[in-house]
Amino acid sequence: MAIDFTYQGVEYKTLVELAKALPLNSAKLVQWTEDADRFAAEAGSLCYESEPRLGIVNHCRDSGHNTVLEHNIFSFVKKVPIFVARQDMRARHATFDERSLRYVRLNNGGFEYYIPPELKKPGREQELDQWIYHHEKAFELYGHYTDEEIMENERARAILPLGIATMYTDSRNAVGWRHHAIKRLCLRAQDEIRLLYRSITDQLVEKAPRLFGDLDMPCYMKQGCGEVKTCGLIELDPKTRRAVAYEKKLQREHTKVELK
């Protein structure tokens, strides 16, 4: 397994230091199966006693032969608002270890919170001030309750808003990452978790392009959109439920193959 605790050119000694250095609503790939594409090909070739060609990975990926992909593990450290984490942790077949606000006291710069982009627009200064005041006041009360030993951390945390940052390690096999990424890359997903998974997907593709190179919004994949209520932002083919632009791309690629 490969391990990387660097971020923006800085190498951190521990996962804790790295997690604290991340900006809010971001994820960093920290451990992964080296040469995952090749290992998946080797696992697939063993099934058929064939030569381990990388094309086997594409076949297994597209046909749903998921066990070939599951041998490869990828781990991220994430720093996101609690409301994003609670959506993220609905994923199945994943292993999470989150900073515990039962045992860890928020101090020394540990109190970070999310500010929605709408409040950063001109003319929203009053609403922005209210948002900041609400969060700062909550932390002030949290500090008072814990500093004065009025109550333990585990109870005082109840006053903290859902927009504060939490940090956790998230490990899954390749199939687990694929399944959840497809769900969260859809335009119907909340913007914050959709953007988080766009970053995660980019990092996965860099390490294993065969395992993850096809990942996109569902309507831009062979399976098509599975939502009863669509986003309404992308024109879909009524038969395949794929994006019309994606269908045209497939047709062009098919034409090129025929001309060769």
Helix content: 40-55%
- What structural class should be given to the helix and strand makeup? alpha+beta
Percent in strands:
5-15%
CATH C-level class of the largest domain: Alpha Beta
CATH-level-2 architecture of the largest domain = 2-Layer Sandwich
Physical arrangement of strands within the biggest beta sheet? 1-4-5-7-6
Find the count of extended strands (DSSP E, 2+ residues).
7
Topology as a string of helices (H) and strands (E) = EEEHEHHHEHEHHEHHHH
Alpha plus pi helix count: 11
Overall form: globular
> Cα distance, first to last residue?
41 Å
Tag the structure with descriptive keywords.
260 residues, alpha+beta, Gyrase A, domain 2, 3 domains, two-stranded antiparallel ribbon, 11 helices, 45% helix, Thymidylate_synthase_ThyX_sf
